[in-house]
């Protein structure tokens, strides 16, 4: 149980020396550094201090995009001003100043500034010694509007007290600077339900793909919205960024821009100096938000350390008091509400990660989930919870959403009749219009038919009974031609799921998992060869599997991840200000941005694990022979990890190639992290004779692409004895949920 303590006011800014003592052994190379505050960024920081402390969300500054010292006007709006009205007003004032800048530039070019109007002279005075004809011409195209944040920032300071101790502890556990605790001011103003336009969510504004590396993010539980779990994930990501980039200005900018993108910036500029990079680096993605993420963080840090200076007397919210109990099985929210006796609204508030399907009762809370309860009630344990609920309310698996795979000849009317529902219900569930064509291969969602998971006691008894039974003679299975319209081997295609493959082949998901030794029903990959019928000694089904099939059905193994419904924004102003206050991009960079997937200016790339010459040829629309010739590769010669490869962009633009490459790695990562999470790292010293395959097996099948992601400068193609590798520690999602 957590308790409120005045210690939290001092923990947040622990001395560097004390933090160093608290570092775990594997974090020995992560010193708790003081966050640098370069004097060259002072004007930028002052601008963001003004945005955060003086200008409210009904106001905004019209300013130069590059030189933040130049602020042309402060605009004010009524609270009920519509978005379109506000945009029109901003554009009108922007064009007025752009025209003024063009006139002043023309006067400077002609050497005549004496005839300038009073307003134009004021614009010239703003620029002072920086004014030149070319600079002001450019400035006319670079006028930007920044919405104020002062009222939102103040509210964030109050809210921060709820979680500040946990944040301080999470950072200290990884040996990270305590100043990083101010980052949620930039990301969400400590609003735990914040949701940005681009899909970033929670206190730390994780994108879904990045969140899945460290948390559970699906239609049942979205831990991005849990301030405690997402804080632990943010500490892991910040630790990763620092290991990769070596300085906190770069590591923090990578939180928004991506670690791979910042590595490319360092390589392009030939320096790790953030000021040099921010002032001079140009790329398609390194824009205003990326350049200003670190200065805005420094401004937030300065205000957070001395809030009274900017807002007067302010009192932070008390620390949240609660207890946690690990769920021993899959349980309905209604059952928990009944036996625990805590009001529904309070349970929901304490467990913000639970998604609408759980709260509505169509899905169950998962086994191993750490349910948060009020701290003032009698302690609950998993054993007490099991006794209070009873076997009939404890389930072994999640009910599977009912679906139908559309086949040739199907119509909405006959599908509705088959499942006892209406055409209108099917159209509503699947977002169909009357004019839409029903295509073969589409998976339609069906109305829920109630929980399909058998209770734990039933499944356990069936499994135990089957295990004790004497094996029966081998069952005779139908031939492939009669059991499935497909061949005995099914090759996984883009977009396939195990559920879809089961429907196509007529083989249950459990049987497909048994035949192919699959542990995770959500992990199949493009090109994978799946057996759809048994051969030889494998024809006899496991009696335990058979018992499970009879007791629970296919629902006992499936936990599909449907599209998540984002929490609604409270207002237009809040919608615009969710995510980083520095611009519309918002949130952590996607997980794929941790990999260097960019095409370099000389049309080369760096080879990443799992990629083949065939992949590149397909994405480029050229032959593999052409790429072999271009790179002087012999037939059958393997691609070495990390090597530079020249590509042919005669058929496809680089950005289209990058998109295909990103999609490929997104699928790989999504499959791997479907039921796994990164919980830390360790250092491994390479031994003589080590191979990549051996390392992968030593660390429970850790994929090479993940090892490469954590060691971008290591030559994994030629491991050297004595060299150090950073190895991510990966656990199963359920094990992670238990905190073990």
Annotation, overall tally of beta strands: 13
Distance between the termini: 17 Å
What structural category do the secondary elements indicate? mainly alpha
Q: What's the domain count?
A: 6
Largest sheet: 3 strands, antiparallel
Top CATH class of the largest domain: Mainly Alpha
Contiguous runs where pLDDT drops below 50 for at least 5 residues = 1-33, 450-487, 535-585
Q: What spatial order of strands do you see in the largest sheet?
A: 2-1-3
Question: What's the mean pLDDT score?
Answer: 80
- CATH level-two architecture of the largest domain: Orthogonal Bundle
Counting H and I runs of at least 4 residues, what is the number of helices?
34
Assembly form of the protein: single chain
Shape: globular
User: What would you report as the Rg, rounded to the nearest angstrom?
Assistant: 29 Å
Helicity level: 40-55%
CATH structural fold name of the largest domain:
Lysozyme
Beta strand %: 5-15%
């Amino acid at each position: 149980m957590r308790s409120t303590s005045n210690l939290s006011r001092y923990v947040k800014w622990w001395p560097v020396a004390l933090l160093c003592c608290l570092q775990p052994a594997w974090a020995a190379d992560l010193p708790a550094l003081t966050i640098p505050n370069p004097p060259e960024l002072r004007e930028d920081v002052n601008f963001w201090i003004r945005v955060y402390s003086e200008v409210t969300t009904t106001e905004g500054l019209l300013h130069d995009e590059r030189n933040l010292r130049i602020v042309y006007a402060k605009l004010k709006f009524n609270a009920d001003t519509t978005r379109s009205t506000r945009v029109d007003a901003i554009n009108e004032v922007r064009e007025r100043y752009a025209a003024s800048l063009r006139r002043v530039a023309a006067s400077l070019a002609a050497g005549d500034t004496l005839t300038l109007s009073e307003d134009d002279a004021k614009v010239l005075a703003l620029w002072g010694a920086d004014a030149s004809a070319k600079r002001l011409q450019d400035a006319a195209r670079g006028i930007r509007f920044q919405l104020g944040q002062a009222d939102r920032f103040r509210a964030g300071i109050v809210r921060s007290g709820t979680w500040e101790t946990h944040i301080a502890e999470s950072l200290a556990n990884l040996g990270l600077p305590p100043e990083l605790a101010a980052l949620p001011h930039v990301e969400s103003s400590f609003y735990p339900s914040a949701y940005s336009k681009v899909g970033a969510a929670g206190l730390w504004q994780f994108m879904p793909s990045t969140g899945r590396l460290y948390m559970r993010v699906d239609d049942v539980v979205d831990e991005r919205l849990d301030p405690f779990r997402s804080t632990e994930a943010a500490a892991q990501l910040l630790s990763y960024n620092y290991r990769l980039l070596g300085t906190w200005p770069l590591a923090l900018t990578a939180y928004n821009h991506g670690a791979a993108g910042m590595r490319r910036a360092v390589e392009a500029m030939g320096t790790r100096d953030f000021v040099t990079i921010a002032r001079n680096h140009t790329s398609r993605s390194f824009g205003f938000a990326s350049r200003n993420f670190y200065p805005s963080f420094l401004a937030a840090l300065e205000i957070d350390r001395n809030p009274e200076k900017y807002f007067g007397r302010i009192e932070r919210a008390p620390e949240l008091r609660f207890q946690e109990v690990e769920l021993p099985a899959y349980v309905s929210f209604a059952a928990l509400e009944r036996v625990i006796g805590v009001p529904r609204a309070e349970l929901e508030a304490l467990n913000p990660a639970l998604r609408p399907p759980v709260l509505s009762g169509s899905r169950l809370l998962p086994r191993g989930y750490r349910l948060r309860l009020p701290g003032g009630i009698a302690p609950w344990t998993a054993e007490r919870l099991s006794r209070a609920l009873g076997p009939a309310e404890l389930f072994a698996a999640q009910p599977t959403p009912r679906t139908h795979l559309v086949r040739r000849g199907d119509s909405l009317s006959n599908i509705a009749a088959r499942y006892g529902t209406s055409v209108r219900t099917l159209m509503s569930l699947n977002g169909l219009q009357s004019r839409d064509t029903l295509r073969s291969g589409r998976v339609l969602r069906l109305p829920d038919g109630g929980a399909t998971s058998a209770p734990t006691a039933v499944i356990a008894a069936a499994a135990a009974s089957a295990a004790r039974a004497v094996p029966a003679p081998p069952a005779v299975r139908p031939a492939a031609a009669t059991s499935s319209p497909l061949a005995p081997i099914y090759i996984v295609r883009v977009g396939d799921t195990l559920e879809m493959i089961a429907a196509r082949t007529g083989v249950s998901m459990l049987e497909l998992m048994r035949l192919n030794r699959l542990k995770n029903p959500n992990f199949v990959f493009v090109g994978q060869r799946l057996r759809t019928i048994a051969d030889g000694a494998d024809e006899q089904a496991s009696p335990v599997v058979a018992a499970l099939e009879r007791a629970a059905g296919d629902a006992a193994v499936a936990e599909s991840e449907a599209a998540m419904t984002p929490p609604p924004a409270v207002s237009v102003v809040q919608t615009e200000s969710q995510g980083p206050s520095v611009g519309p991009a918002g949130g952590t960079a996607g997980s794929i941005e941790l990999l260097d997937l960019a095409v370099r200016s000389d049309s080369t790339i760096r080879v990443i694990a799992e990629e083949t010459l065939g992949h590149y040829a397909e994405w480029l629309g050229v032959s593999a022979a052409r790429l072999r010739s271009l790179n002087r590769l012999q037939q059958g010669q393997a691609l070495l990890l990390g090597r530079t490869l020249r590509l042919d962009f005669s058929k496809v633009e680089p950005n289209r190639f990058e998109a295909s490459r990103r999609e490929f790695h997104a699928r790989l990562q999504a499959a791997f992290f479907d039921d796994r999470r990164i919980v830390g790292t360790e250092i491994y010293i390479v031994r003589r004779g080590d191979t990549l395959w051996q390392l992968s097996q030593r660390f429970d099948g850790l994929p090479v692409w993940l090892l490469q992601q954590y060691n971008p400068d290591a030559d994994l193609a030629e491991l050297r004895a004595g060299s150090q590798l950073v190895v991510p520690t990966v656990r199963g999602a359920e094990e992670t949920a238990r905190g073990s």
